[in-house]
């Protein structure tokens, strides 16, 4: 059970069909824009391209016209995502990859009701993959149902890991992230840093990855993937193990079994605040004592 209560006036199959058609409409522009340069500096080595802005404007206008539901986007904001029914869109997830000409990027679209996912779509045009689902499943990829996720073990799985900078502070300091990376590496078959939360979560929902660890909290990055993984029969929480909600500070997703193993490892790493740079002694790099 997902815990999402769907109002009677929401028709998920109809909304999925409309949303999928609109994502198909912008796919040619997404493909031809690969390699687009930075146009808007967001600070912190983050940026948007002109195509981010164009695609969000187009999707927001068409979604609102076709469904009567407001849209909250990464670039232009929008209605409150914690209450009522609202679309959430990330026009280009994995912008750094996309701008560098790497195909590890896509468009994410989700419908939330009172902060919980109702449906999600992740379009990965550069891989010719289109994932969509209502939270009660199944996941549909390129028009075909994906088998439900089966219980699995971490030692047999490939896990996607979120971005980190060893010197960073904030909610999840770099040292904390690296500690998790190291502890997971002791147990997992393989680790991958793909640079796109949407890609990580879609591949988890599709059974290609056993799970994914995301340190970000933005609705536009996480909502579509949360819907897809839940639809696939996976488990989605924050790093503390609480059910994912749009206000969650992080996201941990995985197949049954794998998610539990990851959650246990993360719990064992301890409190993120204990890993702030000023609290973590740096190892000696040699020299006279």
TrEMBL record:
It comes from the Bacteria. InterPro entries: Inositol_monoP_metal-BS, Inositol_monophosphatase-like, Inositol_monophosphatase_CS. CDD domains: IMPase_like. Signal peptide: none annotated. Keywords: Hydrolase, Magnesium, Metal-binding. This is inositol-phosphate phosphatase. Residues 270-289 are annotated as: Disordered. It comes from Williamsia maris. Its EC number is 3.1.3.25. PROSITE patterns: IMP_1, IMP_2. It catalyses: a myo-inositol phosphate + H2O = myo-inositol + phosphate.
